[in-house]
Design brief:
2 copies of one chain form a homodimer.
Chain A (H helix, E strand, L loop, with lengths): L2 E4 L3 E7 L2 E8 L1 H9 L6 E8 L4 H9 L2 E9 L5 E7 L6 E7 L19 E4 L4 H10 L6 E5 L2 H6 L1 H8 L4 E5 H8 L4 H9 L5 E5 L5 E5 L2 E5 L13 H16 L4 H18 L6 H5 L2 H15 L6
Parallel strand pairs in A: 1-4, 1-8, 2-6, 4-5, 8-9, 9-10, 10-11
Antiparallel strand pairs in A: 2-3, 6-7, 11-12, 12-13
Helix pairs in contact in A: 1-8, 3-5, 6-7, 8-9, 9-11
Chain lengths: 306, 306
């Protein structure tokens, strides 16, 4: 089924305990599109880039079925740039530089050819921009998922609340869930966030996996234990892209399907962190996806005898 | 099958964000015995207590099939006492008081009636004491599991290495695994620890569950997401008791059975933390155990469709 992804397409400079890169392709919509394209095509991409965004990166995504009609190009502008440094535990990072560049003027217009999409992913962006996209859609999608971050809780809580009230599923990490709800207990936090609107909630816990909440039910997915997490940048966006890409492929939004989608997202994210930026995502074959999903099945499989 | 548990039987004073208790029954062997007795009886307990250890606590354990022949009573001595305070995240705690009391003179003698045990749990104790117990066993047990803590890594690393080399399974938390191995990555840490002797390794991650390592394979069990972790004291010992109690019941030490045993241990631990001390463990019925195990199955269950 048709999938619309809105988010950033950017340059990142990254420093991890394993090395550094000065300028690599990044952005939430970039990672999400790479991951989702393993499951469904075409993908209707909505973003904004400067004239500096490499033509070969666009061509590579187009070859994976990513449509660029909704990606605004500002020829004399510069693409969004983010720079960060990770610590040994890879769960905490310091932002060194945030240059909004063309993102400061991002006012997305949904092309007519993008109307009628059934699956929509709102990558982490100003909540007002996320709302604007939803308000332009003529038909209510079957599933809207949304990512956000603590930054918007600090400076745009009213807009954020409104956006959260418009979506089916919110995806945040554990510290963001605590900040958003004011509850320390993850279970209590989930209840409060679900009461804000989203029927479904995913709380991401990095190397400890992810929890999916729906009504009174919980599904817990592990992260794949890895010898080395080389670069966690984009892991959350990759998770989201794999998650919604899989749901769009099977065209089902039941809790049962969402549980499988969490595994698909986790499998994608486990590949993402193996190399800098989206490098590893570009190499993936269908056989890679299958074998990683089998690893998750084996990681979680047990039988009780009495 | 016959199960031997060695560890402390003690008094604890506890402070958590939910309240405090000045003097409650505790100790690794106490928690382990309560948990294991849900699966197998009798349990051959080895410990040391003072004359102050309550007769009704002994009677309650005896009623659960716990043998006391190997528990030394020092009539004019005081039982081991530990006092600690937990922080909001419940994963970190400060030790306020450690009074060894009779534990300082603990030199366990294994009674003749305890010989021939197939399943042995070495609770957290001085490694020299753990070694002494193993050296007294005339027949090599089918399974020896061992718990320890960072304290022994700091002051008795040679003995600890020797003890670890004598057991089939070591159980530590993630920070202890890092300290013991000198590796930050949990997967690398596991390899190094397995190279020290134990074929099996369990790394406990508190609210994030536990990982079981065997040869190149990994099993990941979640913790049950709870609204409130009231008191985490004894959760690790309860996990260990449920784990080995289940294996003793089914009398199997394959990797497949150990995976199920991790779930049993996790189910027991999820009950333990609901109330102060072992209070909740004393109330458990077989129906409680069954229903909590079903919650774990549901928490981890998913199916992929293509």
């Amino acid at each position: 089924m048709s999938l619309l992804i809105i988010g950033t397409m950017a340059f990142d400079a990254l420093e991890t305990p394993f090395g550094k890169v000065d300028r690599i392709i990044g952005g939430s919509a970039t990672y999400a599109a790479w991951a989702a394209s393993n499951f469904t095509q075409p993908i209707k991409q909505v973003s904004i880039i400067g004239g500096d965004f490499p033509q070969e990166e666009i061509a590579a995504l187009e070859a994976r079925g990513v449509a660029f009609e909704g990606v605004e190009v500002v020829p004399d502008g510069k693409s969004f740039f983010w720079s960060g440094r990770y610590h040994m535990d890879m769960n905490t990072r310091d932002t060194l530089v945030t240059d909004l560049n063309v993102l400061a003027q991002f006012d997305p217009k949904i092309p007519e050819s993008y109307q009628g999409c059934d699956y929509v992913m709102l990558g982490n962006l100003a909540p007002a921009v996320q709302i604007s996209v939803l308000e332009q859609l003529k038909k209510r999608p079957k599933l809207i998922i949304m990512d956000t971050m603590n930054f918007w809780m600090d400076i745009a809580m009213d807009d954020l609340r409104k956006a959260i009230g418009m979506v089916d599923l919110l995806m945040v990490n554990d510290s963001e869930a605590r900040q958003l709800s004011g509850e320390y207990s993850i279970v209590k936090a989930a209840k409060k966030i679900q009461a804000m609107g989203p029927k479904y909630l995913i709380i991401k816990k990095g190397e400890h996996g992810a929890l999916l909440f729906y009504e009174g039910k919980i599904f817990s997915a592990p992260a794949l234990p890895l010898e080395e997490v080389f670069d966690p940048t984009g892991a959350g966006d990759t998770f989201a892209g794999g998650f919604i890409g899989y749901l769009a492929r099977i065209n089902d939004t039941s809790f049962e399907s969402m549980k499988a989608a969490v595994i698909m997202g986790s499998a994608m994210a486990s590949y993402c962190v193996e190399k800098f930026g989206p490098t590893r995502m570009k190499e993936l074959t269908p056989a890679d996806v299958d074998s990683r999903v089998k690893e998750f099945i084996s990681l979680m499989d047990f039988n009780i005898q009495n």
